Amino acid sequence: MRILQLFLLTIFLSCAKPAEKIPVSSEKESKTVVAVEKKEPLIIQKDILSFVDYNDDGDYMLLNAKKDQSDFSFINDKNEDRTLLKGDLIEITWKKDTIYISGDGETPELAEWVISVKKLKDGKVSLFRKNYRKKLKYYWSAEESFSKDYLDKLYLIVEYYIANTKNVMIKDAVSKKQQLEYSIEEQTRDGKKYTVIGIAIVFEHRVNTLRWLYLDQDNGNKLYEYDLPNDQLVNFE
Description:
Shape: globular
Low-confidence stretches: 1-13, 24-37
Distance between the termini: 124 Å
Number of strands: 11
Order of helices and strands: HHEEEEEHEHHEEEEE
Strand content: 35-45%
Strand order of the largest sheet: 6-7-8-9-10-11
C-alpha cells in the first residue's frame, strides 16, 4: 500500500506545471524622468549714460552710450526713435536677452536689449541746434563720390566738433549766426587715407577756412584737428 502511494505521488508531481515567474519592474525603471529647463530670472536694469550714436548697419541695431570712460552698446531693434544727439544725457532701461551671432553658426549669446530710453538733458549738440538754428552747408568736388549715409554721418561729426570746439573763430561765427559750411575730400597722409573736412565761412564772396579736420574711418571715425604751424594732426575728443 505504501509503495502504491509513493507511485501516485510521483505521477502527480511530474504532471504539475511549474509556477510562472512574473517579472517585477524595479521602481527605478518605472519612473519617467522629465528634464526641466532652468531659466535665468529676468533682470531689468536702469542707468544714466551719455548718448554716443546709433548704429543700424549690422544684423542688430545698436544704441551706443558712454559712462565715465566706459563704452556700452545696447540692442536697439524695438526702438524706432532716432532723435538723440551725441552728448545728450539719457536714462536707459534694459534687460538681458538672447541674440544669435550671424556667420558663427547662429550661436546664441546674451546681450543687453533696450526697453526704454528717456532723455534727461540736452548735450552740447542739441543746445547748438537750438541756438544756431541754421543748417550747415557742405560740398565736394565732382571727382569725389560719397554715399548719402556717409554724408549724414559726416554731418553729425562736424556738428559735434562745432558744438564742442575751443576754436575762437568758429565760436565767434556761431555766436554771430554766420553761415558755416564745410568742404569734403579724400586725402592720403603718411600712407594713410583720411576724409579731410574744411570748416569755413563765406565773407565778401570769399571762403575763409577756419579749421581743417582729418577723419580716420578705419579707426572708429577718429577725428583730428590739423595743426598748421607744426604740420601735425592733434587728436580731438
